[in-house]
Design brief:
1 helix, alpha+beta
Length: 64
């Protein structure tokens, strides 16, 4: 019985890992300079505004 429980936990763990996807990419514009960059997240700085996205690639060309 314990063996079935272990197998069930392993099966669920593998199934959830297989459905994981990478984070989407977004276009961000600087409030200060107007520069546009393609990033997944902008941390710590309030000087950026998300302007477009999500995208599948790091060049922000393929729509998600």
């Amino acid at each position: 019985m314990k063996r079935i429980g272990v197998m069930l936990v392993l099966l669920l763990a593998v199934g959830s890992a297989a459905s994981a996807a990478p984070a989407p990419w977004y276009k961000w514009r600087s409030k200060l300079s107007g520069a546009v960059v393609c990033e997944q997240v902008m941390n710590g700085d309030d000087g950026w505004v998300k302007i477009d996205g999500p995208f599948k690639d790091a060049h922000c060309t393929k729509r998600a």
